[in-house]
Structures are given as C-alpha cells and as structure tokens.
Amino acid sequence: MITDSATATVIETPGRMAPENYLSCEHSARSWLLTTDHKRIGILYLWTILIFFTIASVAAAMMRLELLTPQGDLVTSETYNKLFTIHGVLMVWFFLIPSIPTVLGNFVIPMMLGARDVAFPKLNLMSWYIFIFGGSLALWSLIHGGVDTGWTFYTPYSSTYSNSAVVLTALGVFVTGFSSILTGINFIVTVHKMRAPGMTWFRMPLFVWAHYATSIIFVLGTPVLAISIVLVGLERVFGIGIFDPKLGGDPLLFQHLFWFYSHPAVYIMILPAMGVISEVIPCFARKKIFGYNVVAFSSLAIAILGFLVWGHHMFVSGQSEFEGLIFSALSFMVAIPSAIKVFNWTATLYKGSISFHAPMLYALGFIGLFTVGGLTGLFLATLAVDVHVHDTYFIIAHFHYIMVGGAVMAYFAGIHFWWPKITGRMYPETWARLAALIVFVGFNLTFFPQFILGYLGMPRRYYAYPDEFQVLNVLSTAGASILGIGYLIPLVYLLWSLRYGRVAGTNPWHATGLEWRTDSPPSTENFEETPVVQEEAYAYDEVPEEVSLV
Amino acid sequence: MAEKTVSAGMYLLVYLALMVLLAATVGAAYLHLGNLTVVAAVGIAIVKATLIILYFMHIRVGSRNLWVFAVVGFLWLAILLTLGMTDYLSRGWVPAPTGWEPGK
Amino acid sequence: MSNVAARVAEQFDDAVQQRESATVGMWIFLATEGMFFGGMFLGYAVYRSSYPMVFGASSQRLDIVLGTLNTALLLTSSLTMAMAVHAAHSGKRRSLVGFLFATIVLGAGFLGIKFYEYFQKFEEHLVPGKGFVFEGADSRHAQLFFSFYFAMTGMHALHMVIGIVMMGVLIVFAMRGKFTAEYYNPVEMAGLYWHFVDIVWVFLFPLLYLVERS
User: Is A253 within 8 Å of C43 (Cβ atoms)?
Assistant: First the structure.
C-alpha cells in the first residue's frame, strides 16, 4: 500500500497480474478454437476484424492513389469499381458492424452485468465461426475477380447485367448476417435474464443500453437484408426475376428492401460507439453522466426511429415524391436523440475534472467529428439539398465523418480504455496520445476537402474527374496517408505492451462499473461470487478525491 | 416450479376453431368481395395466427412480458409493409415540376 | 428439483432462468424469421397492387383442393406438435414420441403434396424462366406471380424440411430418455418453431391460392 504523504490519500497497490486468468488457464489452439468464454471469443473477433480492416484499407489506399490525378491512370475503371465495392463491403459488414459489439461488447457486457457469461455461450462461438465462413466467401470472391456493383448491389445491374462475382460476395454477406443475428439474440436475452441481483435496468451502464438498442436492430433489420440478397441471387441463378423491368418488375423494390436494413445498419455502427463514449467521458471527467435516463431512452429512440427513415437514400431514385416528404420529415426526427446525447456528454464535461488520456482524446474527437457528420446528415435529409449532392463526395464525406471520425475513433477509445482489463497491461500513454492526434489531423485532412468536392459537383465512384478538382483530391490523399500512419502506430505499441507494458492492476482508471472489480485480466468465471449491486451507475462522486490516474 | 400450460382439451378446441376458419377462408374466396377479398383473407389469417400464438405457442399462459416479443415482430413487419407500400400507392400524387429552365 | 436433473447449463443459476432465456431467445429468432419472409410479402403486395388482374388469373392456375388439403394437414400437425409438448410436460415419453412422429408424417405429407404441385406447374410450363408460357394479356406479369409462388412456398418448404429434421432428432433424444417433466426445453422450442412455420403458411395460402376465385 502506498500513501501519498502530501494529501494522505491512499494510492492503489501497484498492479499485479492475476496468476490464473482467462488467458493463462489454457494455451492450446483447441482451447481457443472451441472456447465458449465470451472474453476469448471477443479476442478471436479482435484479430479477425483486424484482417478485414487491413484489406479494406488497402483498397482505399489504392483508390486514393488513383485519385491523385484527374485521369484514370493507376487502374482501369472496372478495377476501380471493384476497389470501391470491396472497400464498402468489407468495411461495412466485416469491420464496422461487428467491431464494437463483438470485440468490446462480448468482452465487457457480461462483466458489466455481474454475470458469468452471455446467455448462450455456444451460440456466441457459432456466431464467430459463421462470421469466418461468410468472410471467407467474401474474400474468395476477390480471388474470383471481385465484384463491381458497389456495396449497395443495386438491381438490375447486380441481378442481371454485372459479370462479376456477385453471388459469391452476396452469399458471404448473407451468411455473415446470421452472425449478427445470433449476437443480437444473445445480447438481448443476456440483458433480460442474466443481470446480477440489484442490477436493475436503470443501474446498467449506458454501454449495455447502447448494445441492447443495437441488438434490436440486429434482429429486426438483418433478416430483410438477407431476403433482399436471396432474391438477387435467385434472379441471377434461376432467372426468377422480380426486379427485372422486362417482366414488369421494379428495381426500386430491391432498394426498399436493401435500405430497410442498411439504414438501421448505420445505427448498428454508431450506437455501440456512443456506448463507449458514455463510459469514457464520465471516467475521465470524474463525473456522473448528465441525464442517464435520457441517454438510455435516446439509444432506444435511435434504434426505433432509425427504421423509419430508409427512403432518404432514395430521394432521387424514382421513389414517389410524397414518400420522399415523409422520409425527409422522419429523418429530421431521428437526429434529435443523437443530438441529445451530444448535449449530455458535453454537459457531463462541464465542471468535470478532465484528464487527457488516450481514451478521452478519442472520445473528445468523436464528439466533434460525429457532430459535423450528424449535422451534414440534416443537410442531406433536406430534399432540395440532397437532389444537388446525392451521389457526390459530399455524401462520402458525411458518412466517413460518422463512421471513421465517429465509430472508428470510438472503437479506438474503447480498445484503449479496456486494454488494461483485457490484457492486464497498460499501453504507453505518450505514444497513444500522439497517435490519437495524428489520426485526428489525418482524418480531417482526408475528409473535409471531400465536403467541398461534393458540393462542387465531383461524383462518387468515379476514377477520373475534371482537372479543377485535383488540388482538393491531393489534399485528401495526403490526409489518408497521415491517417494510415495514425492507425499503424497503435498496432505497434499495443502489441509491444502485451510483453513490456506496465502491469495494470484491477482498476487503473479508478472507473466505476462491475467489470473494473474483476482481476486484470479476469478469471474465466469473471467473479468469484456473483456481486450484489447496491449503487447507481457512474457513482464517481464516491470515488476518493484527486486520485492520480498516472 | 411447474410452469402453467394449456390443457389438451383446449388444444382440441382451438384446432376445431382453426378448421372452421379454414373453411371460412376458402368460402370467403368465392364471395364477390372485390377489393375486400384481400381484407377478408388476411383478416381471417390474422385470427388464425392469433389463436395459434395464444394457445399453441403458450403466450396466453406465458410470463408477463413474453407477448411483447411477439407483438414487436408483427409491428416491424407492419412498418416494412406500410412505409414500403406508401411509395407505390403514392406515385404520381405530387406532380413533378415541368418547364424548369436553368439559369432563369 | 436439482440443477443436475434439470440439466442446467453453467452460465445459468437455475432451470427457470434457463427455460425463460431459451423461450425469449426463440421468440426473438422467430421475429427475425418473420422479417425474413416479410420482405417477400412486401414484394408480393407491391406487384399484386400493381397487376391485380394477372395475379388473379395466375392464382386460379393453382390447385385450390390441394392447397386447402395442405393447409388442413399443417394445422393438424400444429395440433400434434402442441400435444407432443404437452406430453413432454407430463413426462409421458411414449406419447411424446408418438405425437412427434405424427407431426413428421403430417409435415411430410404436406411436402409430398407441395412437390407434386411443383411437378404439375413444371408440366404446365408455369415455372419462371425460359420455358414459361401463360396465355392471356400481360403474360410477363404472370411470371412475377409465379416467381413469388415458387420463392415463397419454396422458402417455406425449406423451413419445413429443417423442422422435420429437428423432430427426428427430438425423437432420437426422447427415446434415449433425454427429456423429463423437468427438462424438455428443446421440445418446446421446436414447437414454437413449428407453429411459426404453420403461421407463415396460414398467410401464404389465401394470398397465393385465393386471389380471385369468385
């Protein structure tokens, strides 16, 4: 026990690695590949999505290299189509959607609830194997020449005219959908049935609420994607054509079915991210979250309202104008709960005792960049504006601000925040802060020029463009290389920390939450005895004053 | 803890009701209902489905909140069908602008 | 009732928690299945509202007798399935196996008739694709109807095959004495699944077979 003589407060016992933990208990490949421990499954997902992120990033790098010059000179137009398709497919379904839920959610949620594991551990493992299988199909399609329809698979190009590996990729996405559904079922049942005594709904961490809301979308949205893919497949393989205009079919029917899922899918990508932010901000402001109930209900509201706005992707498609009006109005409404969350995080910071550790840097970056992305979403919900900027780089900038500036930064925040718990080690703080800053600068340099490019009229999914757009494109590519460096640095120091990082101890952040009462790394059963919960969430007022977080 | 269940007699009763409703479904098809044909068909189907859910699937005797899961499933289906069909039913309602001249 | 007798898995505290978790989980899964079929129902609704006459004419080419018979078979199989769960709840192993077997027979009967109908349609050149022949105006729209017919009943049939396989597995487990009055979750969950598949058909039958019979 170390006492700070100046303030006579107790500083935590220096950390020690728990001798028997979920990592050290067994080492064989079999123990990993047949594990039903939610923590090991989280680690399996961690490595798997890293692979997909890398491949998708390479595709992006090639696109940005091509766009350095106005002419198409690096790759052919067909290849460029395949690049943006695989970038979208892998990033959306094989990185963003699984990332926080399957890595951080799986790892942390049972502990947050005081449970030994999720409700269905074997389904959890099956979920990962299904993910691997679906991902393999998607990668196999690359070997077969790739697919060029765009991640959106619009008909009739995907169903009739494209000569690329549509069915293989679509099958990969279809299969992976079941992985999502099983994760969603697992989380919902876990929240309903596996909470420790005293852990009422309104004492749960907001990270759990966020994942509950996400799981609602997983289970109600993904099946519609599944059927839309099956129907495209049936049309391609058996000629059972319901999207074929020659038979009186309507290609827009596909778009309705596709976006019914794919719009809520973006909330699948952002809700867990918001959940991370709701954990990080109170911890590094040493203050209870402002408006817990409101934030919890906002998560549900986002999930529900998110199902009512899909037509805003179809304003110029031929959808009825009346329907466009309805969707525009509803899209304005869905922005409200997200804005409420931003207000609440900001209010939490107000008069807090703020420290700038890496998780907090990423979280603060999230708040700013998500706000920009979200506000531009309102511009797009406005029918007249969308007519002008639809299918331009404005849209690309909008969703990358939310997905990269928002979701990816939140993922990094969460990885850094829970790294000590997952590995028992601290990462090197100075390098982490540096990387966060590099990511922030690189990100903005990459994507801000794209708002301007889009507004000026540069279309998306084109490998060549008019000369006057070159300067902004060069800036964007320069930014992308900086962003890439920013992403590589954590890869290096996180691996380094596994061996050489400072031993973390049970609760290096002095955070609230049941997961911080387990060992670091936790034992396989998480808790020696099921905890009984008596305090509210985010009870930061009760934590001793002025504890140095080192 | 013995959970509540439905009696065998009740199952038979529900089954008979379902068979009667099946006859009604087919019978209604032969009536001249015009646009209401689909309403009658789907309406009777909903009654059948409700009976199956309440009795065969034990919602009637299940735990307090279980019915919420069944209702939510149907509700989401309704969202898909309603907002989806609205497009097709409202095409042509708002006239597209004509005579638009750029630069004026 | 000990947790061992009730086969309580490690992550659960007791059999009640296990059973309630399984039930909630299965209902959520059924909701996903409902949304999956729902996409096809939307497509069907779109085209039926756009081409009501052709849909009516196409529907008349389906055999109403076989369709009605099949619906009756499936509803009866739901009864036998409910009775199977009831038998499990009462710990009556032989009745359980008997009712499961009856469910399989009725389900197989349904599938037999279905495939016979498919064969008929093939002979009548009503399978969408190159060989499709339909007299009357807008025959190409009729292809849309039959695309939905095959896609929707085919997907339904696939779910029935899976259900029958599950029943078979349950029979094997039941005969090995795996189920007791305290533990019969798998039977109950399979029952929920089977009733759901029945409900899908309850909607498919009138929408496909009874569009225009008056």
Answer: yes
